[in-house]
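Progress note, project year one: complex with magnesium ion.
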Amino acid sequence: MRSAEATLSEIIGAAGAHVPRLLALVEERLVLLAAGHGPVLAEHAGETIAAGGKRMRPLLVVLAAGPHAGRERELVAAAAAVELIHSATLVHDDVLDGARLRRGAPTVWARAGRDVAVATGDLLFSRAFSELTAVGSLAAVRSLSRATSALAEGELLQRQDAWNGSVAIERYLLRCELKTARLFQAACEMGAQVARLSTSQIAELGGFGRGIGLAFQLLDDVLDVAGPASLTGKHRGTDLLDGTVTLPLILARERDARLAAVDLRTITTPAAAEQLCESIEQTGALRESQARALQIVAEAKLALDGLPLENGQRRALNLVADSVAERTA
Ligand code: FPP
Ligand code: MG
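Model obtained:
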């Protein structure tokens, strides 16, 4: 299994030197955009950005644009905007979840409370659309705003379906699409828009992003049940304790009547969650969930075949898809 760093260096090796250069510019922009607006917001927005993350969405913006897109200021702005939206949603999500740790650091909610966390998320959200003006494209505004509306819908769907063990697979997949896949889609669309690709090419690249985003979420949900905590950095079954019903549990309940009879509200301790994870795993539901995710990645990669991409760009996008399929944390 390759480490995340090895995969990123392989992606950069395939795509070319413009990628790390642009990603470094994105980091600089993110720091600048989080600064100001009073000391409290500057501190918490700054720490949110400094906590890092995989920066997958900026990477997708840059890769979708390809090596000859030019228009570097626009690309960096698009990549920074999409990452700011992602960061804003996580700050708000941690308030809703009452989550104390994110990316190994205390969340804004844990450090400074609800009011500051809501305001910090709002600021990051607003800075994203301010940065978007530098992209100078109404199509980019449309892509990012659609994805952001989808995020809000997805989050609400998750709250509405909390603790409902008999949620339908289609509704679970819709939730994953709304809360995760659409922002990946927007990242690819925005890169392709800045590179002035055709409408159908923008849609194809967007479809690729949507596919790997969907698989990313499915595998995130598999890892929550599969663990181990030493790799994922969180206890097995955190979703179960939050009442978040995901594909492994849905499939396991179809396969084992005893699991279908479990009332999720009775799972209140990490030990009980761990035990339920074991039972889910024994039904084979983890393997099936993973197989579905891998199938989605394979289909997403097929979407690249018809596109006139540079060789290195094509290889790099395929490697991103592989890194999603192989993710262990
Ligand atoms: C993290 O997923 C949460 C999301 C991807 C969506 C959060 C969306 C909102 C809070 C609403 C929209 C907000 C704005 C600013 C538009 P997860 O809970 O599965 O993952 P986690 O384990 O990392 O928390
Ligand atoms: Mg969450």
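Strands lie at 101-102, 105-106.
The chain has one domain: 4-325.
No further modelling is planned for this target in the current period.
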